[in-house]
Amino acid sequence: MTQPEAKPWIAAIHAYTPGKAKSDDGRTLIKLSANENPLGCSAAAAAALVEARETLARYPDPAAGALREALGKAYGLEAEQIVCGTGSDELLNLIAMGYAGAGDEIIHVRYGFAVYDIATRKCAATVVVAPDKDYATDVDALLALVTDRTRVVFIANPNNPTGTFTEDAEIARLHAGLPADCVLVLDQAYGEYLEDDGPAAFDLARRHANVLVTRTFSKIYGLAAERIGWAYGQPGLIDTLNRIRGPFNVTSAGQAAAIAALGDSDFVLRSRRHNREWREWMAGEIAALSNHGLKVIPSHANFLMVMFEGKTSAGDVNAALMEAGYVVRWLPGQGLANGLRITIGSEAENRGLMAALRQILEQHS
Ligand SMILES: *Cc1c(COP(=O)(O)O)cnc(C)c1O
Fold this sequence. Notes:
By secondary structure, this protein is an alpha/beta fold. It folds into two domains: about 20-40 and about 265-365, Aspartate Aminotransferase, domain 1; about 45-265, 3-Layer(aba) Sandwich (Aspartate Aminotransferase, domain 2), CATH 3.40.640.
């Protein structure tokens, strides 16, 4: 060996592809590719972040105590059963690392979140992909893949990139079918976009020793730049994550901003309302383009997955939209070469995108 070689399971990882903000020739585009909040973040959160510069020389609270207390109050949860992470991304990776290794299996659903594949490979575990049902989670297909080597099951609900939602009863049935030593991860990055905020997941995690719920400040709270996520579960699970997380994994500014964001429920309500209104509008506009072969998958999140089944391919539309100044998400690497995921933007962005899309389709027909 003439040079260092990565472990084979590490060398097999395809790095996460982030949503683009610029065209290939360097133009800044209107970014509807990363499911960010078009309303920004709470003004109180931004102010708290600025104030945090007073303590830049100090390490952050390693336990994120005040943030966990605030989360407990806001969501009706036990603060000691919460752990915070550098985005929920860190926590998803730690869950895989904490419970699986070489020879173990981790299941996720086809068209699931790209991080699950990476988290599984990082800890040398085997990726098991369950077939979908109309782009959504198929509980029976998933349960059919469970073996005595299954250590973790990752489910995003609502799911990214498809926007689909699995009913509470189906999630309960999935849990009931899993062995007690298999961790069920309910990734609720988009939970706050649900009309009822998805409390059934927390209930399940409260009652069972093998369920973890993950949430994030990156989506409805609009704090993606600060990298703050959290997980809720029974003490055994939380203990494991605390043992292996970075000791100072959430910055002081991030903790302060997140606490302020939790205090501004009005911003969350406004964001949810804006999203629902414009998601319905966009879905209606796209449904009206069915003569061009467009079909929208019913979404419960802050984006729409649009399938292109007509003459004009998703790849061509993706390129033409970029030409027109818009970047959306084309995911051929995830088996979705015939779809585009479009984040719900501001009113002007949504109207502009639809006008550009209509024009592209007419030019191609
Ligand atoms: C955006 C997203 C996350 C959140 O990632 P962060 O690391 O918290 O920014 C987690 N899961 C899914 C399914 C997502 O779409």
